[in-house]
Amino acid sequence: MTCESAKSLTGAYADDELDAGVDAQVREHLATCGSCAEAHAQLLALRAGIRERAPYYRAPAYLQDRVRAAVRQAGRQAAEPWRWIAIAAAILLAVSAAWNAVELRSPNFLRDQFAQSVLSSHVRSLLGTHLLDVPSSDQHTVKPWFNGKLDFSPDVRDLAPQGFPLIGGRIDYVGDRTVAALVYQRRQHVINLFTWPSPAPDRPTELTRNGYHIVHWSSGGMAWWAVSDLNAGELRRFVNLYKQ
Amino acid sequence: MDSPPKLALFEQCIVPHLDAAYNLARWLTRNEHDAEDVVQEAYLRAYRFFDSFNGGDGKAWLLAVVRNTCLTWRRREQGIAKVPFDESTHSPGEAVATAETKLVEQAQWGNVRDCLESLPLEFREVLVMRELEEMPYRDIAAVTSLPIGTVMSRLSRARRRLQDCVTGRMKGVTQ
Questions:
Q1: What is the ipTM of this complex?
Q2: Who among A8, A46, A75 is closest to B3 (CB)?
C-alpha cells in the first residue's frame, strides 16, 4: 500500500470502518511508515482530545419531562380526530335516541302537556272570578258569543235535560293558544269543557290528576278536554252525551 | 385510536435517545436554550412522522429529525437576524485567542471545544456524530442523507480543520 492511499484511509482505519482486508493492509503499512504512523497517532490524539475536552452535552432532566409531556400532548391531539368523531357519533346517537323517544312519547308527552294545561285552566277558573265570560244557560247565546273572539266556532250543546246544565262560556288559554271553555254544572261540580281546532285526532284519554278527572277526545277536527272534580263515571257519562 | 400503542412504541424507541438529540442540537445551535427548543420541536416532528420509522436504529432516525429541525431553526434565525449569520464571524479569531492567552497554563486541548464549535456546520455535525456519539459511517450517512464515501471525506476534512484550529490556537497561545 502506498503512503498516499494509506493516508487517505487513516481516518476510516481509526474509525474501524475498513474491510478486514484493507484494514490489515493499512495496519501493515503503519507499522513500517513513520510519517503515516505519525498521522495516525495525530488522529488518535485529536480524538482523545475531543472526547476529553469537547463536552458531551446531556439533556437536562427537565427537558426530558418537557419532551415527554409535549409528545403525550401531541398523542392526545393526534387521537383528537377520532375523539371528535366519537363525540360526534355519541351526540348523534343521543340526539337520535332522544328524537326517537320524543317521537315515541310525543303523543303522550303532548297529551300530558295539554292535560296539565287544561287542569291549570280549570283550577284557575274556579279560584278566581273568571269562570265565565258569558254567563248563560242558552247554547244559542253562548255559541254566538265566541264569534269574533276565536278563529273557530265551538259546538255548544245543551245537556240540561241529562243533568248537565250549561252555565256559560269564556275564552281561555291552553298551551299557547286561545281556546273556548264551555262551563257545565253537575250539582255543585263545575265541568270545564275546553275545545279548539286540532286537525290531527289522537287517542281518547282519561286521566286523573290531583283529584280531578280529565277526559279527552277528538271529533270533527276539534280537540275536546273535559275537566272536573266530578267522579270519573259521571264525567265519562257527560262526555258520552256530548259525543252523541 | 392507535395512538396509545404508537405513543408507547415512541417512548420505547425514541425517547431514550434524548441525550444524543440534545447533544447534537446543542452542538449545532451552539446555545442551550435553542437546543432545548429544537429538541422539543424535533421530538414533536418525530412523533408526527413516527409512522415512517420502520424499526431499525431509532437513534439515527431521531438524529436525522433533530438535524433537519436544526437546519430549519437556523434558516429561521438567519431570516430574523439583521446581520446574516456568518460562520467566520463566529470563528474564534485573534480576539478570542488573545483573551485566552491567560489560559496558557490550560492543557493543550483546552480549545478543542471552541474549535469544534467554530467549525462550519457540515464539519461540526459529522465530528459530533463520529467522535461524541461514536456513530458508524452508515448511521452518519443516514442522518445527513450523504453517501458513505462523502461522510468519510467530510470527516477527514473536518478533522484536518479541527487539527489546524487546535494547533493554530496553540501557536497563538504559545507565541
A1: 0.79
A2: A75
- The verdict on pTM exceeding 0.80 is no
Q: Does domain B1-85 have CATH number 1.10.10.10?
A: no
Give residues with Cβ within 8 angstroms of B19, minimum separation 6: A56, A58, A59
pLDDT digits (tens, 9 = 90+) for B111-138: 899 999 999 999 999 999 999 999 999 9
Q: Give yes or no: residues A48 and A136 share one domain.
A: no
Contacts of A63 in chain B (CB under 8 A): 18, 22, 36, 39-40
Report the helix count and the strand count for chain B, using DSSP H and E.
Answer: 9, 0
* Residue A13 scores a pLDDT above 90: yes
A232, A121: one domain: yes
Distances (CA, A) of A133 to A136, A182, A202: 9, 10, 29
Q: What percent of chain A has pLDDT over 70?
A: 89
A227: helix, strand or coil: strand
Cell of A135: 254567563
Domain B86-175 has CATH 1.10.10.10: yes
Integer-rounded Cα Rg, in Å, for chain B is 18
On whether the CB atoms of residues A215 and A241 are closer than 8 A, the answer is no
A-interface mutation test, from B27, B38, B43, most A Cβ less than 10 A away: B43
Is residue A59 included in any domain, yes or no?
A: no
Model pLDDT for residues B65-110, shown as the tens digit of each residue: 999 999 988 888 777 654 444 554 444 444 444 444 444 434 566 7
**Of A34, A53, A72, at which residue does a domain stop?**
A53
Interface of B with A (CB under 8 A): 1, 3-4, 6-7, 10-11, 15, 18-19, 21-23, 26-27, 32, 35-36, 39-40, 43-44, 47-48, 107-110, 112-113, 116, 127, 130-132, 136-137, 152, 155-156, 159, 162-163, 166
Quick: pLDDT tens for A16-30: 999 899 999 999 999
pLDDT at B151: 94
Domain residue extents for chain B: 1-85, 86-175
